[in-house]
Amino acid sequence: MSKPVDGALSGKVALVTQAYTGVGRSIAKALAAQGARVVIHHPHIPEAAADVLEEITSAGGDAVGLAADIGDRTEYEELVQALLEDCGRWDVLVTTATVPDAEPFAQISGESFDSFVVAVRGVFHGLQLALRHLADGGRIITVCDAVSPNGAIYGATLGAVERLGRAVSADFATRQITVNAVGRGITEAADPELAAGVAALRQPAEVVTYLVGEAGKTVTGQVVRLDGAAEPVQ
Question: How many angstroms separate the Cα of 208 from the Cα of each of 139, 211, 212?
Fold first, then answer.
């Protein structure tokens, strides 16, 4: 049996949405490697979550899988209640909005564009529930990662997710909860200290781990790009 992980996030509980695949999966593994107990959210696909749960636990990490359609408020609330009953606390929310954008702009149908609405709704629900239930001093990070090079729906989702997080960061400030966003793109570095901290990081999981850790405790209302630059609240 692997030795349990004892790291910088030991004792913390992190919920990672869509953690059964893609960027959510890599973030879940990175947080578990730092000692966090990670709640692997999946949309009622336990067999998909089983693989990442096995990867984490076989490496000595601690993880549990919970199912919900996070676009449905009632299901998301039930997930959070199950998390609190099972783990006793909730310290970190990493809400991922990965959008499959496989069509050129001229060919995007109204049905395809609904993926934008669904992704943003899940982030919105998570932020509201975190405001009610996240522990003081917690961390919230919204992550929007592209799946394909056609960027219309991704761009719309990225903009909405970033602006939403920045707009509500002040609502969490009195409880020392930070709210930040991670996405792809290029922007100028307006916060030199933050820009320096993430300059060498190239993957969302690396940036998220940085923001969840001690170095990120005073960073809030920021958008961190994977080119290493950061953009503050206007």
Answer: 10, 5, 6
Q: Which two tokens stand for residue 36?
A: 């966090």
Q: Catalytic: 154?
A: yes
Measure CA 159 to chain center.
15
Cα–Cα nearest to 123, from 176, 83, 180, 207: 180
Cα angle, residue 230 at apex, residues 157 and 179 outer, rounded to 5°: 60
Catalytic residue among 20, 76, 154, 210: 154
d(CA 161, CA 27): 18
As a dihedral over the C-alpha atoms of residue 19, residue 123, residue 198, residue 215, rounded to 10 degrees, the angle is -90
Determine the angle formed by the axes of helices 73-87 and 110-133, rounding to 10 degrees: 40
pLDDT, tens digit, 9 for 90 and up, residues 1-33: 455 667 899 999 999 999 998 889 999 999 999
Reported pTM: 0.89
